[in-house]
Write a sequence for this structure.
């Protein structure tokens, strides 16, 4: 079901949507014998081919660049820049080996990325879970304005935030430091986490807390022991998306980071030099940057729609 | 949100948070929960916001400590009279309409196709979603590799089709290339959201239309489209806000060139601030961009309110 309203109704509608899908499966594949072919079936044979072809084109368009990046990262120098694209080649690990040896070792970049993205995602999740719960349950006046302020912080263009933040960070000595990057990433991850967690908490019926209160829990105990375990998938989704946003950032890192804090996207862009680009190493870095986030993203695929629409649309 | 619940009988919950309230003072537990996050958010958003306003009316000196010298409306006058700036806005609008428009059309198309697939839909969807998780910088650099005129895979394909130009070297093809890179990365998001919306259209309604002999496009126009229009609007708004947030792809492929063909507003802002160190003027540009994104945010929140999409 698409539009989430109250938790029970959306859960119910989700199951009916599932049934509808399955119902379609039956209608198309196994019509009862003796029943004349419906127009739906007659047209479906023709259109099934159209659908298959269109999807095949979409798959090729989507996957070719990624597969090509992966293949190229295992090519040697001459194969990577061959005028005729090489599909069959002798694979080599040289590109990866070169990334981790020599003066410009990739190790520190990975460490900076893990630290900056990981800490900012954890902080956003922690503060976002607390504030999101408050936002979901509060009845204060001006809640609407508060929510609007939070969402507009998330939507503010990075270019507009970077300029004043640069001056402030300069004043505070936060340029070229991991804490500086963490704070910069919190400008978009914190409002995102608050808003999204509040959407997940709103799906939990308040009656659950009430029974916990009746049983003698404090509000904090009810939150900690009853509500949090119920929103585990929400917590994981929020964390993963915050991690992806921060890990993939370039616009903040290019301004705020220096030798002590440069992240992986910066390492990738530094391979672009005046003298030329080592595409073998570049595709290897690309693979290292992209693959972990794809795995993390697919791990929370069931809740991706909810997460990426900030809770406005519920999927599956 | 409460006011939605008040106006709609469907959403009224008998045991709402109301019954928790009497035991607590007005800003009690919820307020305490929100405080740490909101204080940090305020520090990270309101302080820079006022700094941005102050900077837009000043000349910012960086040497020997940050200093703001008031210059009145100079930055704003320059902003309004800068012909290059207007060209950048125009280009941004074209870039915005092309990327978001293509992504919406293709995304809805892919979702409609995927919806007809019954077996293996999940694996297909998972594969189609992959570009979304790629760092935009990598997408840009990969795009550069694929379109390189001597060894790029796509350049090779185009060459065998008869196109021999340098793709990122001439204004029109460079613009098309950066648009397509963005489309490659973000079309899956639209497909994902639309697919969630399609699952809400009752199958019986679609079948009834087909039995009545309605052509496919009429079924889409009069049955499916109205049912998923809210979800499409959400997808459009989400994409719109990110379309002007991210400019990494252009930054690492053409960096605004060739001949300013891809110089959209955020690129110009970065250049103004971090190459020419004209922070005052950059702040004015930043505020104008912020106004646009606040407009999107307002529309988003209002949509959630009025159409009952919100919780």
């Amino acid at each position: 079901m698409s539009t989430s309203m109250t938790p029970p109704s959306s859960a119910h509608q989700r199951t009916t949507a599932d049934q509808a899908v399955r119902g379609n499966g039956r209608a198309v594949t196994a019509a009862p014998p003796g029943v004349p072919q419906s127009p739906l079936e007659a047209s479906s044979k023709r259109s099934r081919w159209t659908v298959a072809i269109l999807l095949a084109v979409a798959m090729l368009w989507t996957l070719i660049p990624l597969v090509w990046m992966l293949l190229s990262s295992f090519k040697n120098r001459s194969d990577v820049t061959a005028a005729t694209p090489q599909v069959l080649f002798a694979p080599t690990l040289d590109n990866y080996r070169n990334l981790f040896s020599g003066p410009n070792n990739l190790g520190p970049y990975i460490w900076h990325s893990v630290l900056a993205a990981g800490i900012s995602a954890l902080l956003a999740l922690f503060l976002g879970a607390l504030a999101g719960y408050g936002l979901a349950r509060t009845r204060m006046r001006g809640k609407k304005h508060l929510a609007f302020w939070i969402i507009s912080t998330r939507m503010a263009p990075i270019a507009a935030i970077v300029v004043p933040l640069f001056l402030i960070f300069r004043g505070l000595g936060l340029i070229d430091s991991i804490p500086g990057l963490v704070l910069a990433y919190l400008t978009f991850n914190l409002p995102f986490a608050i808003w999204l967690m509040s959407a997940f908490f709103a799906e939990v019926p308040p009656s659950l807390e009430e029974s916990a209160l009746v049983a003698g829990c404090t509000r904090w105990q009810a939150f900690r022991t009853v509500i949090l375990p119920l929103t585990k998938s929400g917590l994981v989704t929020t964390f993963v998306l915050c991690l992806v946003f921060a890990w993939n950032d370039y616009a903040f890192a290019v301004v705020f980071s220096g030798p002590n804090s440069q992240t992986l996207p910066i390492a990738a862009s530094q391979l672009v030099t005046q003298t030329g680009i080592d595409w073998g190493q570049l595709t290897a870095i690309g693979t290292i940057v992209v693959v972990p986030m794809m795995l993390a993203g697919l791990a929370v695929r069931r809740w991706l729609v909810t997460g990426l629409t900030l809770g406005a649309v519920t999927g599956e | 949100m409460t006011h939605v619940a008040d106006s709609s009988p469907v959403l009224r919950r008998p045991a709402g948070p109301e019954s928790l309230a009497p035991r607590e003072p007005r800003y009690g537990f919820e307020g305490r929960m929100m405080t740490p996050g909101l204080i940090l958010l305020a520090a990270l958003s309101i302080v820079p916001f006022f700094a941005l306003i102050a900077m837009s009316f000043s000349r910012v000196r960086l040497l020997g400590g940050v200093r703001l010298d008031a210059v009145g409306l100079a930055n704003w006058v320059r902003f309004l009279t800068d012909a290059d700036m207007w060209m950048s806005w125009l280009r941004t609008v074209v870039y915005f309409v092309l990327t978001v428009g293509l992504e919406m059309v293709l995304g809805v198309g892919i979702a409609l196709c995927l919806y007809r697939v019954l077996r293996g839909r999940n694996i297909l969807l998972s594969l189609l979603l992959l570009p979304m998780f790629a760092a935009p910088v990598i997408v840009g650099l990969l795009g550069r590799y694929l379109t390189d005129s001597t060894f790029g895979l796509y350049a090779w394909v185009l060459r065998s089709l008869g196109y021999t130009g340098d793709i990122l070297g001439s204004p029109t093809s460079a613009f098309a290339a950066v648009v397509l890179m963005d489309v490659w990365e973000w079309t899956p998001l639209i497909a994902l959201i639309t697919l969630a919306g399609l699952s809400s259209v009752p199958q019986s309604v679609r079948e009834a239309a087909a039995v009545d002999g309605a052509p496919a496009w009429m079924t889409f126009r009069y049955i499916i489209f109205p049912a998923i229009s809210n979800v499409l609007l959400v997808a459009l708004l989400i994409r719109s806000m990110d379309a002007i947030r991210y400019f990494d792809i252009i930054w690492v492929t053409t960096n605004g060139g060739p001949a300013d063909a891809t110089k959209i507003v955020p690129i110009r802002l970065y250049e103004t601030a971090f190459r020419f160190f004209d922070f005052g003027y950059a702040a004015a540009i930043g505020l104008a961009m912020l106004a646009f994104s606040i407009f999107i945010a307002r529309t988003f929140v209002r949509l959630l309110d009025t159409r009952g999409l919100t919780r």
Summary: The mean pLDDT of chain A is 83. The first helix of chain A runs from residue 7 to 29. Residues 107-308 of chain A form a domain with the MetI-like fold fold (CATH 1.10.3720.10).
